[in-house]
Design brief:
- α1 packs across α2 and α5 packs across α6.
- With 228 residues, the chain is of the alpha/beta class.
- α2 links the parallel β1 and β2.
- It is 39% helix and 11% strand.
- The chain has a single domain, classed as Rossmann fold.
Length: 228
Protein backbone atom coordinates (compact mmCIF):
# COMPACT_ATOMS: atom_id res chain seq x y z
CA UNK A 1 0.00 0.00 0.00
CA UNK A 2 1.53 3.31 -1.05
CA UNK A 3 1.12 6.63 0.71
CA UNK A 4 -2.09 8.33 -0.37
CA UNK A 5 -3.65 5.16 -1.80
CA UNK A 6 -7.38 4.70 -1.31
CA UNK A 7 -7.54 0.91 -1.09
CA UNK A 8 -5.74 -1.77 0.95
CA UNK A 9 -4.14 -4.20 -1.47
CA UNK A 10 -5.05 -7.71 -0.33
CA UNK A 11 -5.87 -10.51 -2.73
CA UNK A 12 -8.26 -12.41 -0.46
CA UNK A 13 -11.12 -11.60 1.84
CA UNK A 14 -9.78 -10.52 5.21
CA UNK A 15 -11.30 -13.67 6.72
CA UNK A 16 -9.21 -15.80 4.32
CA UNK A 17 -5.84 -14.09 4.83
CA UNK A 18 -3.42 -16.81 6.02
CA UNK A 19 -1.05 -16.55 8.93
CA UNK A 20 2.39 -15.39 7.83
CA UNK A 21 5.58 -17.34 8.53
CA UNK A 22 6.36 -14.79 11.25
CA UNK A 23 2.86 -15.24 12.65
CA UNK A 24 3.38 -18.99 12.80
CA UNK A 25 6.61 -18.43 14.73
CA UNK A 26 4.78 -16.18 17.18
CA UNK A 27 1.91 -18.67 17.61
CA UNK A 28 4.34 -21.51 18.37
CA UNK A 29 6.07 -19.25 20.89
CA UNK A 30 2.78 -18.73 22.72
CA UNK A 31 2.12 -22.47 22.56
CA UNK A 32 5.53 -23.17 24.09
CA UNK A 33 4.84 -20.58 26.80
CA UNK A 34 1.60 -22.32 27.77
CA UNK A 35 3.28 -25.74 27.52
CA UNK A 36 5.91 -24.66 30.06
CA UNK A 37 3.18 -24.00 32.62
CA UNK A 38 1.90 -26.71 34.98
CA UNK A 39 -0.89 -28.75 33.42
CA UNK A 40 -3.33 -27.27 35.94
CA UNK A 41 -2.70 -23.79 34.49
CA UNK A 42 -3.06 -24.58 30.77
CA UNK A 43 -6.25 -23.83 28.82
CA UNK A 44 -8.89 -26.55 28.87
CA UNK A 45 -11.15 -24.99 26.24
CA UNK A 46 -9.98 -23.16 23.12
CA UNK A 47 -12.40 -20.87 21.28
CA UNK A 48 -11.36 -19.14 18.06
CA UNK A 49 -12.57 -16.62 15.54
CA UNK A 50 -13.50 -18.18 12.18
CA UNK A 51 -10.76 -16.14 10.48
CA UNK A 52 -8.19 -18.43 8.89
CA UNK A 53 -5.21 -16.88 10.67
CA UNK A 54 -6.95 -17.12 14.06
CA UNK A 55 -7.78 -20.80 13.52
CA UNK A 56 -4.19 -21.52 12.49
CA UNK A 57 -2.92 -19.73 15.60
CA UNK A 58 -5.23 -21.79 17.83
CA UNK A 59 -4.15 -25.05 16.22
CA UNK A 60 -0.44 -24.21 16.47
CA UNK A 61 -0.81 -23.45 20.18
CA UNK A 62 -2.50 -26.82 20.66
CA UNK A 63 0.12 -28.72 18.62
CA UNK A 64 2.87 -27.10 20.70
CA UNK A 65 1.35 -28.67 23.80
CA UNK A 66 -0.06 -25.43 25.11
CA UNK A 67 -3.36 -26.91 26.29
CA UNK A 68 -4.35 -29.30 29.06
CA UNK A 69 -4.45 -33.03 28.38
CA UNK A 70 -7.72 -34.10 26.82
CA UNK A 71 -8.55 -30.67 25.43
CA UNK A 72 -10.71 -30.95 22.32
CA UNK A 73 -9.92 -29.30 18.99
CA UNK A 74 -10.43 -25.52 18.95
CA UNK A 75 -14.09 -24.51 18.74
CA UNK A 76 -14.89 -21.96 16.03
CA UNK A 77 -17.27 -19.26 17.24
CA UNK A 78 -18.26 -16.68 14.63
CA UNK A 79 -19.13 -14.21 17.40
CA UNK A 80 -15.37 -13.81 17.93
CA UNK A 81 -14.77 -12.49 14.40
CA UNK A 82 -13.23 -9.06 13.91
CA UNK A 83 -15.39 -5.97 13.57
CA UNK A 84 -17.06 -5.82 10.16
CA UNK A 85 -16.48 -2.67 8.11
CA UNK A 86 -19.25 -2.85 5.51
CA UNK A 87 -18.83 -0.40 2.63
CA UNK A 88 -15.55 0.80 4.16
CA UNK A 89 -13.98 -2.65 3.80
CA UNK A 90 -10.44 -2.49 2.32
CA UNK A 91 -10.41 1.31 2.30
CA UNK A 92 -7.60 3.38 3.80
CA UNK A 93 -8.38 6.53 5.75
CA UNK A 94 -7.63 8.45 2.57
CA UNK A 95 -10.04 6.23 0.67
CA UNK A 96 -12.80 6.76 3.22
CA UNK A 97 -12.31 10.53 3.15
CA UNK A 98 -12.31 10.64 -0.66
CA UNK A 99 -14.99 8.07 -1.51
CA UNK A 100 -17.28 8.35 1.51
CA UNK A 101 -16.68 11.78 3.04
CA UNK A 102 -20.06 11.66 4.78
CA UNK A 103 -18.97 8.48 6.63
CA UNK A 104 -15.71 10.13 7.65
CA UNK A 105 -17.76 13.00 9.09
CA UNK A 106 -20.22 10.66 10.84
CA UNK A 107 -17.29 8.83 12.43
CA UNK A 108 -15.77 12.12 13.56
CA UNK A 109 -19.06 13.19 15.13
CA UNK A 110 -20.08 9.85 16.66
CA UNK A 111 -16.67 8.38 17.43
CA UNK A 112 -15.53 4.83 16.67
CA UNK A 113 -17.51 3.39 19.60
CA UNK A 114 -20.89 4.26 18.07
CA UNK A 115 -20.23 4.79 14.36
CA UNK A 116 -21.69 1.98 12.25
CA UNK A 117 -20.77 2.15 8.54
CA UNK A 118 -23.47 0.91 6.16
CA UNK A 119 -23.47 -2.94 6.16
CA UNK A 120 -20.84 -2.86 8.91
CA UNK A 121 -20.62 -2.77 12.68
CA UNK A 122 -19.91 -0.31 15.46
CA UNK A 123 -17.93 -1.30 18.55
CA UNK A 124 -21.31 -1.53 20.29
CA UNK A 125 -22.40 -4.18 17.79
CA UNK A 126 -19.26 -6.20 18.52
CA UNK A 127 -19.92 -5.84 22.24
CA UNK A 128 -23.48 -7.11 21.79
CA UNK A 129 -22.34 -10.38 20.20
CA UNK A 130 -19.54 -10.75 22.73
CA UNK A 131 -22.06 -10.49 25.57
CA UNK A 132 -23.74 -13.52 24.03
CA UNK A 133 -20.42 -15.33 23.67
CA UNK A 134 -19.57 -14.73 27.33
CA UNK A 135 -22.98 -16.07 28.36
CA UNK A 136 -22.26 -19.23 26.35
CA UNK A 137 -18.86 -19.62 28.01
CA UNK A 138 -20.46 -19.23 31.43
CA UNK A 139 -23.19 -21.76 30.59
CA UNK A 140 -21.08 -24.47 28.93
CA UNK A 141 -17.55 -23.91 30.23
CA UNK A 142 -18.06 -22.52 33.72
CA UNK A 143 -15.12 -23.31 35.97
CA UNK A 144 -12.86 -24.13 33.00
CA UNK A 145 -9.74 -22.32 31.84
CA UNK A 146 -10.77 -20.84 28.48
CA UNK A 147 -8.44 -19.52 25.78
CA UNK A 148 -9.99 -17.13 23.24
CA UNK A 149 -8.09 -16.50 20.00
CA UNK A 150 -9.44 -13.34 18.41
CA UNK A 151 -8.61 -9.90 17.08
CA UNK A 152 -7.78 -6.41 18.27
CA UNK A 153 -11.29 -4.99 18.60
CA UNK A 154 -12.48 -8.24 20.17
CA UNK A 155 -9.75 -8.06 22.83
CA UNK A 156 -10.62 -4.46 23.61
CA UNK A 157 -14.37 -5.07 23.71
CA UNK A 158 -13.91 -8.07 26.00
CA UNK A 159 -11.96 -5.83 28.37
CA UNK A 160 -14.81 -3.33 28.22
CA UNK A 161 -17.30 -6.04 29.21
CA UNK A 162 -15.31 -7.96 31.81
CA UNK A 163 -14.04 -4.83 33.58
CA UNK A 164 -17.31 -2.92 33.26
CA UNK A 165 -15.56 0.00 31.57
CA UNK A 166 -17.00 3.20 30.16
CA UNK A 167 -16.64 4.28 26.53
CA UNK A 168 -14.00 6.80 27.55
CA UNK A 169 -11.99 4.23 29.51
CA UNK A 170 -11.78 1.64 26.75
CA UNK A 171 -11.00 4.22 24.09
CA UNK A 172 -8.18 5.48 26.31
CA UNK A 173 -6.79 1.93 26.45
CA UNK A 174 -7.08 1.71 22.65
CA UNK A 175 -5.28 5.04 22.23
CA UNK A 176 -2.28 3.71 24.17
CA UNK A 177 -1.34 1.44 21.26
CA UNK A 178 -2.29 -1.55 19.16
CA UNK A 179 -2.81 -5.00 20.60
CA UNK A 180 0.37 -6.84 19.61
CA UNK A 181 0.21 -9.97 17.49
CA UNK A 182 0.02 -13.10 19.67
CA UNK A 183 0.05 -11.02 22.84
CA UNK A 184 -1.63 -12.49 25.91
CA UNK A 185 -4.39 -10.86 27.95
CA UNK A 186 -5.28 -12.91 31.01
CA UNK A 187 -7.95 -12.86 33.70
CA UNK A 188 -8.10 -14.98 36.85
CA UNK A 189 -10.92 -15.73 39.24
CA UNK A 190 -10.63 -13.44 42.25
CA UNK A 191 -12.75 -14.17 45.31
CA UNK A 192 -12.28 -10.57 46.42
CA UNK A 193 -13.83 -9.12 43.24
CA UNK A 194 -17.42 -8.51 44.30
CA UNK A 195 -19.71 -10.35 46.68
CA UNK A 196 -19.58 -13.56 44.64
CA UNK A 197 -16.07 -13.14 43.24
CA UNK A 198 -15.21 -12.19 39.69
CA UNK A 199 -12.49 -11.92 37.08
CA UNK A 200 -9.46 -9.73 37.71
CA UNK A 201 -6.95 -8.66 35.06
CA UNK A 202 -3.62 -10.44 35.43
CA UNK A 203 -1.88 -9.13 32.31
CA UNK A 204 -2.85 -7.13 29.23
CA UNK A 205 -1.21 -7.16 25.82
CA UNK A 206 1.76 -9.07 27.22
CA UNK A 207 4.37 -9.97 24.62
CA UNK A 208 6.59 -11.85 27.08
CA UNK A 209 5.70 -15.26 25.55
CA UNK A 210 6.86 -14.06 22.14
CA UNK A 211 9.96 -12.29 23.47
CA UNK A 212 10.99 -15.25 25.62
CA UNK A 213 11.05 -17.48 22.51
CA UNK A 214 13.13 -14.96 20.60
CA UNK A 215 10.35 -14.26 18.11
CA UNK A 216 9.99 -10.69 16.82
CA UNK A 217 7.25 -8.62 18.44
CA UNK A 218 4.95 -7.01 15.88
CA UNK A 219 1.71 -5.08 15.99
CA UNK A 220 0.62 -5.06 12.37
CA UNK A 221 -3.16 -4.84 12.69
CA UNK A 222 -5.74 -6.65 10.59
CA UNK A 223 -5.99 -5.49 7.01
CA UNK A 224 -8.94 -3.21 7.71
CA UNK A 225 -7.26 -1.08 10.38
CA UNK A 226 -8.23 2.15 8.62
CA UNK A 227 -11.85 1.75 9.59
CA UNK A 228 -11.20 0.27 13.02
Amino acid sequence: MTSGSTHIDIADRDVDVPLSVLGEHQARAVGDWFAAKPVAERPEIVLTSPYRRAQTTANLIRVAGGVADGTLDPIVDERLREKEFGILDRLTRTGIEQLYPEQAEFRRLLGKFYHRPPAGESWCDVILRLRSALDTISLHHGGKRVLIVGHQVVVLCLRYLIENMTEQQILAVDAEGDVANCSVTEYALDARAGADGGLSLVRYNSVAPVEDAGAPVTSEPDANVAAR
